[in-house]
Amino acid sequence: MELEVRSREIVLRPPDLWDKVRGCCKGSAKEAERELDEEENEWRARRSRTK
Question: How many domains does the chain divide into?
Answer without folding.
Answer: 1
